[in-house]
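Hey, I'm writing a tutorial for new members on how sequence and structure tokens pair up, and I'd like a real worked example in the thread rather than a made-up one. If someone can provide the structure for the chain below, I'll link this post from the tutorial.
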Amino acid sequence: MQSTQFSVFAIALSAGVSIAGCSGSPSTNQATISGAASVPGSAGAASELGNAGSVAQAGALMLLGPGEMAGDTSVGGSASVPYPDTLPDGFTAANIFGGYRVGDAITATSGLAPEIPDTPADGCGTTILAVIRDFKADGQNFEGVDIGDDKNMVLPTLGADRKPVFAAVGPTPTVKDPAQFADWYRTVDGVNKAYKLELWFGPNGGASSFQSTDFFPLDGKGWQDEVFGHNFFFTTEIHTQFKYEGGESFKFTGDDDVWVFINSKLAIDLGGVHPAAEASIDIDARASELGLKKGKVYPFDMFQNERHTNQSNFRADTNLNFVDCGTVVAEIPK
């Protein structure tokens, strides 16, 4: 989806697997979010971040441009490492921070069984497993749809199978075929082509970042239904867990639809086909609403769609302490 903002996918993985990021070209320009977290970016970043809302980690999270070095910070407690020097073998560098590797195809049969990667003794590092599914432009839900926000599209509680449940078409109907929604995060032969996706988050000021303003992992793969030189029309899902310790925050900026569920409750709703939009969560402020108690581990489920040309942006900032390496959840037939 075309964006008028800087936008990327970035997840700060602190003391396990956390998720973070910034965007724009490498720069030392600093933009402050509600006087709390400073995030560098392009020259236009300050004006964009001025309306960002609170990241709710006062004075804690500082993210750097690629290759910059940080001293000790209060998130992660260690200095950053120049990027992309540490990019793992076999990974493709994102155009700002981090990298990715598209793995094996997932069939409708193989998708019926869950896959939980082994957690190394020293933790997951900064790599987490996701699933990405390629769709064709159909003029119903992928391309040819109305442009605009489409909030309340999904129910406020995650389904028992850890998939979002369609609720209703909103005021801006960006879904013309609601029946297809159930296939967005299920592997269905002839409808989508699914792949494992590993996301690597580069060290970034005591956090870690995956940042891309050109997030097209499926170029040359799937249906190869390419427009403007890229394979648009895909969905991404992430399932992991985090330990709530207090002081955490999570922020996402990207397009198109984005839904984040914490403890199976909808915490971010950026539904719709739109330029890069953003939302943030102060975990402490919403702990009661989300049913969180310090010291406990809770599920974190995130869903993102790219449903319209001509740009793809994916970003998030957080210091959540993720405690597993991601899960390919079991798919229950419809």
